[in-house]
Automatic annotation (TrEMBL), chain A:
Protein name as it appears in the record: Sugar ABC transporter ATP-binding protein
Membrane topology per record: Peripheral membrane protein
MF terms (GO), sorted A to Z: ATP binding; ATP hydrolysis activity
Main location: membrane
Automatic annotation (TrEMBL), chain B:
Stated name of the protein: ABC transporter permease
PANTHER family: ABC TRANSPORTER PERMEASE PROTEIN YPHD-RELATED-RELATED, RIBOSE IMPORT PERMEASE PROTEIN RBSC
Its membrane topology: Multi-pass membrane protein
Species name: Microvirga brassicacearum
InterPro entries reported in the protein's UniProt record: ABC_transp_permease (IPR001851)
Principal subcellular localization: membrane
Length: 506, 331
C-alpha cells in the first residue's frame, strides 16, 4: 500500500528536555494505525507535530513522498490532516450546527446561512450514523454525543488523514462501538487513521498496525495479527505486565461500616440503598450518566440529597465535604483537573489544601511541615516530578492522580470513595493505583471504586453494584463478576445482545 | 539525567525571576526617575512623603480589595461605603465631647460599620449566589444614597473645634518623621501580607480564587472564607476613613467618588489576577503609590494638563494589563 504520510527521525525538545527523539512513522492509505504508550511517552507530542500544532526540532515529514512542513494546524488541515482532540472543544451555548461551522460559517449575501449549515450538519451527522438534532445546544448533549459532534466538525474539511487522540476515554463500551464503526468506515474510504489509545483491547480490535512509544522513543511498529494486548503492555512499559491487578486481599469482613438507605439526589439518583463492609473494595459500575458520581457527591454533602446514612451504627448527615472528611470519608472526584487539584498552584499547596489545619503552628502555616509532607508523599506515592516547585497542571495525568490520592490520604480516611481512579492514566501508574487500593483495604479501610472500565471492577472489587438511570440495577458477588453480567445490568439489554456488544468491544 | 535537569532548572529559575511580581516595582522606579528628570523638586523628602501620604486611603482600601479579588470576588461599593462610614463616624463624633474616648467610639463605629457593610456584601454574594459585580453594584447605590439622605444633600461636618484639634494629628501628625497615614498604611499592608501569605485562611482565599470547585471538594469552608474577604475589605474601608476624616473634617455626597476604580486599578497594577488565584499585597501597595505618583508628576510638569489625570490613570491600568499578558505569554 502507498504511504501517505512518512515521518523520519522526528525529535522535539522543550528547552533542555527532549520529549520525542528520533521517532519514525509510516502511515499508509486506508490503514488504522494505533499509537500507544504510557503517559509522557510522547504520543500527544507526535500527534501534534503531525497535525501542525507543533514544529519538530529536527526530522522531516513526507506527504505523498514530498518533503513537507506545517507551520500551523491550518496548513495541515489544508493538506487534509485533521486532529480530533481528546478534550471537548465546543461552545456549550451554541447549537450543534453553529459549533460545526464555527469560524467557517456558510454565508449568503454576507449573512450566515443557517438553513444550509443545518442541512449540511444533518448530512454529516447521518454519515456518522447518528441523528442528533442540529438545533440543540451543545450543553444539552451527552458527552458521547458531544464527542460525535467534535468528530463531525473535524471531518467537515476534506480529509486524507484523521488522528484521534484517546477518543474513547469518555465513552461507554456501547458508544465506543459506534465510534469504531466510524473509524472502520473512514479506513474503507481510503482515509488513513491515526489512533491514540490507552485501551489495548480496543487497539487490538480496530487497528491494522501498532506503533509503541516509550520515553519519547520508538519501541516497535508491528502488525496487529502478531500482537496481543498483553504483549503491547509489555512493550509500552518495558517489563512483564501479566499481573496488572494485585491479588484481591482477603479483607472484606462481615461487619458493616456504613449503611445508606433511600438516598435520593434530585434529577440524578432515585432511592438508592446499599451497605459497605469494613475492609471491602466495593465497585460501582454503570454507564456514564447513571448517577454514580451524583450519588456519592450527594452522600458526602457536595450536592443536595436526602436519605439516611448510618456510620458505625449512628445516623449521620454531611453538610459539606469538610464535614464528611471529619467523619473519615473522602471523595476523589473523577474530574481531577476541574474539581480535584488547583492546576495553577504548586504541589505543596495542593497536597495540604484539604488538611491545612494540621500544618499550622499557632495561627501560621508551617511550611517546613508541609515540605516534609510533600517529600513523604513524593516517596510514598511515587509522584514523578522534575522539580518540586512545578505547578500541579504541569504533572502528567497519572502523577496528578497520585498527588490527589496523597492529598486525600492526609485526611486519614476510613472510607475512600474514588471516582474513575485511572481515567487518563497510563498503564504503569494504573498498576500502582490498583496496588495502592488493595493495600488500603489491607489496612482496614473500606474503598468504593466508581468505574466505567469493567475490567477494572472485575480485577479489583470484592463486590460490584451496577447502576442504571439513577437506580441500583443489581449486585454482583465476586464469583459472578463478568463483563457480560455488568453490561447486562448497566444497559438492561438482554443477554444475547449484550454478549454481542461485549464481543464487539473485546 | 534527572539530576542535571533539576540543576539546570534551578539555575534557570535564579536568572529568570517572576517578572509578573517584579513589574510594578520596576514601573515605580522608572516613574521615580522620570519624575526626577522632569522636576528637581520631585525627589525631595517632603514631596515623596506627600505623595505617599495622599496614596494612603486608596492603598488601605486596596489591601482589602486584594483579598476580595484574589479570592475570585469583586467589590464596587468601597467608595460609597467610605462616604457612608465617614458620615456616620462624624455624626458619632458630633455627639460626644472633645475627649479621647469620643475618638475611640468614632473609631469603633467606623470599623464596625465598615465590617457590617462588608458582611452584608459577603452574605448576599455567598448565600444569595449572586455575581459579586451585581451585588456590590447594588450596595454601591444603596450606600451612596444613604449618605446623601443622611446629609440631606449637603455636607456633614465636624462641629466641635476642640475635637477636630484633638483628631488632627491622625492625618497631619507624624511618628519619627513619618506621617501617620503612611505608618497606618504600612501597618495595614504588613498585617494583610501576613494574613494572606502565612495563614490557612490566606491559603484558602487563594484556593477559592484559583478554583472554587476544587476548594469545595477539598473541604474548604468556602462560604465563610468568601464572606470574610468582604468583611476584611469593609474593615480596611473603616481604617481608611479614620485617616481621611481629619483631613477635611467633613463628608459630602461626593466623598469617595470613584475610589473603587482606583482601588481596583491599584490591585491590578500590582499584579493580582482579576480572575482570582494570585494575590500580591506589596504589589497593590506599589500600585496605589504609582497612581498618586503619576498625578504628582503631572502637576509638577507642564506637559499634560492635570485635568487629564484620570485619563492617564485609565491608560495605566490598560498598559499594566498588556504588560502582564505579554509576560505571561513569554513564560
Amino acid at each position: 500500500m502507498a504511504s501517505v504520510l512518512r515521518a523520519d527521525n522526528l525529535s522535539k525538545s522543550f528547552g533542555p528536555i527532549e520529549v520525542l527523539s528520533g521517532v519514525s512513522l509510516d502511515l499508509k492509505t486506508g490503514e488504522v494505525h494505533a499509537v500507544i504508550g504510557e503517559n509522557g511517552a510522547g504520543k500527544s507530542t507526535l500527534m501534534r507535530i503531525l497535525s501542525g500544532h507543533l514544529q519538530p526540532t529536527s526530522g522531516v515529514m513526507h506527504l505523498n513522498d514530498k518533503p513537507t512542513a506545517f507551520a500551523s494546524p491550518v496548513e495541515a488541515e489544508r493538506e487534509g490532516i485533521v486532529l480530533v482532540h481528546q478534550e471537548i472543544l465546543l461552545a456549550p451555548d451554541l447549537t450543534v450546527a453553529q459549533n460545526l461551522f464555527l469560524g467557517r460559517e456558510l454565508r449568503r449575501f454576507g449573512f450566515v446561512d443557517d438553513e444550509a449549515m443545518r442541512e449540511r450538519t444533518r448530512t454529516v451527522l447521518a454519515e456518522l450514523g447518528t441523528a442528533i438534532d442540529p438545533d440543540v445546544e451543545i450543553r444539552h448533549l451527552s458527552i458521547a454525543d458531544r464527542q460525535l459532534v467534535q468528530i463531525a466538525r473535524a471531518l467537515l474539511v476534506p480529509h486524507k488523514i484523521v488522528a484521534f487522540d484517546e477518543p474513547t476515554a469518555v465513552l461507554t463500551p456501547v458508544e465506543a462501538e459506534s465510534l469504531f464503526d466510524i473509524v472502520r468506515r473512514l479506513s474503507q474510504q481510503g482515509v488513513a487513521v491515526l489512533y491514540i489509545s490507552h485501551r489495548l483491547n480496543e487497539v487490538k480490535a480496530i487497528a491494522d498496525r501498532v506503533t509503541v512509544l516509550r520515553d519519547g522513543r520508538l519501541v516497535a511498529t508491528r502488525e496487529i495479527e502478531s500482537l496481543e494486548p498483553i504483549e503491547m503492555a509489555r512493550l509500552m512499559v518495558g517489563r512483564d505486565m501479566s499481573k496488572l491487578y494485585p491479588e484481591k486481599p482477603d479483607t472484606a469482613s462481615a461487619d458493616t461500616i456504613m449503611t445508606v438507605r433511600h438516598m435520593t439526589v434530585p434529577d440524578y439518583v432515585d432511592n438508592v440503598s446499599f451497605t459497605l463492609r469494613r475492609g471491602e473494595i466495593l465497585g460501582f459500575g454503570g454507564l456514564i450518566g447513571a448517577g454514580r458520581t451524583e450519588l456519592f457527591e450527594g452522600l458526602v454533602g457536595l450536592r443536595r440529597a436526602k436519605g439516611t446514612i448510618t456510620l458505625d451504627d449512628r445516623d449521620v448527615y454531611f453538610r459539606d465535604a469538610r464535614h464528611a472528611m471529619a467523619s473519615g470519608i473522602v471523595y476523589l472526584s473523577e474530574d481531577r483537573k476541574g474539581k480535584g487539584l488547583l492546576l495553577q498552584q504548586d504541589l505543596r499547596t495542593n497536597l495540604t489544601l484539604a488538611t491545612l489545619e494540621r500544618f499550622t503552628r499557632g495561627p501560621f502555616i508551617n511550611v517546613a511541615a508541609e515540605d516534609a509532607a510533600l517529600d513523604a508523599a513524593i516517596g510514598d506515592f511515587d509522584i514523578r516530578t522534575r522539580r518540586r516547585d512545578l505547578l500541579a497542571g504541569q504533572l502528567s495525568g497519572g502523577n496528578q492522580q497520585k498527588l490527589l490520592l496523597a492529598k486525600m490520604m492526609l485526611a486519614k480516611p476510613r472510607i475512600v470513595i474514588i471516582d474513575e481512579p485511572t481515567r487518563g492514566v497510563d498503564i504503569g501508574t494504573k498498576e500502582q493505583i490498583y496496588r495502592f487500593i488493595a493495600s488500603l483495604a489491607e489496612q482496614g479501610c473500606s474503598v468504593i471504586v466508581i468505574s466505567s472500565e469493567m475490567q477494572e471492577l472485575i480485577g479489583l472489587c470484592h463486590r460490584v453494584l451496577v447502576m442504571r438511570n439513577g437506580r441500583i440495577a443489581g449486585e454482583l458477588a465476586q464469583a459472578d463478576l463478568s463483563e457480560d453480567a455488568i453490561v447486562f445490568l448497566a444497559t438492561g439489554v438482554h443477554e444475547e445482545r449484550a454478549a454481542e456488544i461485549a464481543a464487539g468491544h473485546a | 539525567m534527572t539530576d542535571t535537569l533539576l540543576r539546570t532548572a534551578a539555575a534557570k529559575r535564579m536568572f529568570n525571576p517572576d517578572m509578573r511580581a517584579l513589574s510594578p516595582f520596576i514601573a515605580l522606579i522608572v516613574l521615580a526617575i522620570l519624575g526626577a528628570v522632569i522636576n528637581p523638586d520631585f525627589l525631595t523628602a517632603s514631596n515623596i512623603l506627600n505623595v505617599v501620604t495622599r496614596s494612603a486611603f486608596i492603598a488601605i482600601i486596596a489591601v482589602g480589595a486584594t483579598f476580595v479579588i484574589s479570592g475570585g470576588g469583586l467589590d464596587l461599593s468601597v467608595g460609597s461605603m467610605a462616604a457612608l462610614v465617614a458620615g456616620f463616624t462624624i455624626l458619632t463624633l458630633n455627639n460626644g465631647g472633645a475627649e479621647i474616648s469620643t475618638l475611640m467610639l468614632g473609631a469603633l463605629v467606623a470599623i464596625g460599620l465598615g465590617a457590617a457593610c462588608g458582611l452584608a456584601n459577603g452574605v448576599i454574594v455567598t448565600f444569595g449566589r449572586i455575581e459579586p459585580f451585581i451585588v456590590t453594584l447594588g450596595t454601591m447605590g444603596i450606600f451612596r444614597s444613604l449618605i446623601i439622605w443622611l446629609a440631606a444633600g449637603g455636607t456633614i461636618t465636624m462641629r466641635n473645634a476642640d475635637l477636630r484639634e484633638l483628631y488632627r494629628p491622625v492625618y497631619f501628625g507624624s511618628i519619627a518623621g513619618i506621617p501617620v497615614p503612611i505608618v497606618v498604611f504600612l501597618a495595614v499592608a504588613a498585617i494583610g501580607a501576613v494574613i494572606l501569605y502565612k495563614t490557612a485562611f490566606g491559603r484558602h482565599v487563594i484556593a477559592l480564587g484559583s478554583n472554587e470547585d476544587v476548594a469545595r471538594y477539598s473541604g474548604v469552608p468556602i462560604w465563610r472564607v468568601r464572606t470574610l474577604t468582604y468583611i476584611i475589605q469593609g474593615i480596611c474601608v473603616g481604617i481608611a476613613v479614620l485617616v481621611y476624616v481629619p483631613r477635611l473634617g467633613s463628608a459630602t455626597p461626593t466623598t469617595g467618588l470613584l475610589w473603587e476604580l482606583q482601588a481596583i486599578t491599584a490591585v491590578v497594577i500590582g499584579g493580582t489576577a482579576l480572575r482570582g488565584g494570585i494575590g500580591r499585597i506589596w504589589g497593590t501597595v506599589v500600585g496605589a503609590i504609582i497612581l498618586e505618583l503619576v498625578a504628582n508628576i503631572m502637576v509638577l510638569s507642564n506637559f499634560v494638563s492635570e485635568f487629564l489625570v484620570g485619563a492617564v490613570q485609565g491608560a495605566i491600568i490598560i498598559i499594566a494589563m498588556l504588560v502582564q499578558r505579554s509576560l505571561q505569554r513569554g513564560r
